[in-house]
Design a protein that fits this description.
With about 500 residues, the chain is α/β, with parallel strands linked by helices. It is built from 16 helices and 18 strands. Keywords: Coiled coil.
């Protein structure tokens, strides 16, 4: 009897009454059923119009008497009709909400036995990380060999109890978002949430477990400033809680707690490293390759794509296979029996948090290699786990070396990139000094940007202002051309020292 084909005018007609719901009903606020209705006898022109909450029993009783009096019909018939109407509207609303939920729900792709076996065979293969990196390249990620593998492993860590996070940094237009989105294509859709803009309270209204072990992708951190605080809390505490005031059906005001649980893995892109320091401290910082060689690789790829000579079927199949690999990874704990021997260089910035990231990254590699390890069971807790090997640590050291190097630097990544370009320019031209005007012209840098770099480099003691004897004019000079090489060597030695400590420990035992 309830007809809803017109979303602005539902009709409900029986032998006694004809009722129209003007403007339809709302699908939120399930504790209310607020409607505006017109009531009349079939084919009658005597109409009663009224707004009412069908869930309010006192209002219903008053309406029943009003309809009976105005339309001249029995109260029992009217009451029964309104009860039937309320039940029909309630059922319709629940069906529509369920239909909407199914439409918005991401379909989880089930692997066939053949696909699952192929993925497991791949995960058991020798040189797994090397083969994975090659597949990432075949999927359409051009260059960025270290960054792309590092990002893929960080995204994989979402399935662990201690996920990792990353922020991609670089100048505007160098491909930060492209790299993140291409690597994210290798993660199953049901395991990720992509965000462009979010309101300040949006995170608190996810279902309690909706974000658990998800990868949260933020296209640009500048567009998500309002949610950076709850994101940081999700990263650190693995849950967020908000207390709000809520009215129940009876109108009684109550305080309720909205809790959303993690853990989550968070990835974002920005050009402003210093602005998001609190988030950067919780994340791996991936500096995009802005070299001329990388420019050439990308432009060659663009030309091949435009000419139709790029094998897009191979890209699609490689990405699909890596998604199958991700679906074949099971939840399992990781234990690192060598953790006590792993110490970071003293030069690393914020060593406590960086040390945790280092250990978690080793665990992420072990987790990814779970099909190559014998599963063990803790006799006391019953926990199933796999153990880290020395090979895992060696591979982690190779991949993470650049990250630790950047973490040990006193200047921002943009200033470091500029300083290294500056060193190369001076070396190629056999110079020791330079001026702002010269560098701005030769390296094609805006004046405001260049002055910002040089101000930071001066304050940190990387360059100094000197006076030329002949012209009495001022110029700049790099204080130590090899300081970055020394820093790199100290990190290399520290990581090698960790492995030596492990070997000595094994010999002693």
């Amino acid at each position: 009897m309830l007809k809803t084909h017109n979303p602005h005018n539902y009709s409900y007609i029986n032998a006694y009454l004809e009722i129209h719901i003007l403007g339809g009903i709302k699908f939120n606020n399930l504790e209310r059923m607020r409607v505006t209705m017109s009531v009349q006898k079939p084919k009658s022109i005597n109409v009663l119009r009224h707004s009412i909450d069908l869930y309010n029993d006192n209002m219903i009783e008053k309406l029943v008497r009003k309809i009976a009096e105005r339309i001249e019909i029995g109260t029992s018939v009217t009451r029964k009709t309104l009860q039937e109407l309320t039940a029909a509207l309630e059922q319709y609303r629940m069906e529509e909400l369920e239909r909407e939920k199914e439409a918005n729900q991401i379909q989880v792709e089930e692997l066939s036995a053949t696909e699952e076996q192929a993925a497991i065979t791949f995960l058991k293969s020798k040189d797994l990380l090397k083969k994975t990196n090659e597949l990432i390249g075949k999927s359409g990620v051009i260059g960025e060999e270290t960054n792309r593998l590092l990002m893929y492993l960080i995204f994989t860590s979402r399935k662990t109890n201690n996920p990792l996070h990353c922020i991609s940094l670089g100048s505007s237009g160098v491909g930060k978002t492209h790299l993140q989105s291409k690597v994210a294509e290798l993660i199953p859709d049901e395991d990720k949430i992509e965000i462009t803009v979010l309101s300040a309270n949006a995170f608190y209204y996810f279902n309690r477990t909706e974000l658990r072990n998800k990868l949260i992708l933020i296209e640009d951190l500048d567009g998500a400033e309002s949610v950076l605080y709850p994101l940081r809390e999700l990263q650190s505490k693995k849950r967020i809680t908000k207390t709000v005031v809520h009215k129940d059906r009876k109108g009684t005001t109550k305080t309720i707690h909205l809790t959303v649980e993690g853990p989550v893995s968070v990835a974002g892109c920005t050009t402003q490293e210093s602005v998001y320091e609190d988030n950067s401290n919780r994340s791996f910082l991936l500096y995009i390759d802005e070299s001329e060689e990388q420019d050439k690789k990308i432009m060659d790829y663009q030309r091949l794509l435009s000419a139709g000579k790029r094998n897009q079927k191979e890209e699609f199949e490689s990405a699909r296979f890596l998604r199958s690999v991700q679906r074949s990874l099971n939840t399992v704990s990781v234990r690192n029996p060598y953790a006590e021997y792993l110490t970071l260089p003293v030069s690393v910035f914020k060593p406590r948090r960086t040390n945790a990231h280092y250990l978690q990254f080793i665990e992420a590699i072990t987790f990814y290699k779970q099909w190559q390890r014998k599963k063990k069971t803790d006799k006391e807790t019953g926990e199933i786990y796999v153990e880290t090997t020395i090979d895992d640590i060696q591979q982690a050291n190779e991949i993470i070396k650049e990250v630790l190097l950047r973490k040990s630097d006193l200047i921002t990544g943009a200033a470091r990139n500029h300083l290294e370009r500056l060193k190369t320019y001076l070396k190629d031209n056999e110079q020791t000094t330079f001026t702002n005007a010269e560098i701005r012209k030769q390296l094609h840098i805006k004046e405001s940007t260049l002055r910002g770099y040089h101000k930071q480099l001066q304050e940190e003691g990387y360059i100094k202002r000197v006076k030329k004897k002949k012209t009495k004019s001022y110029c700049f000079e790099i204080v130590d051309m090899k300081e970055y090489d020394w820093l790199r060597a100290s990190i290399d030695n520290a990581l090698k020292g960790c492995l030596q400590q492990i070997e000595l420990g094994l010999v002693a035992n």
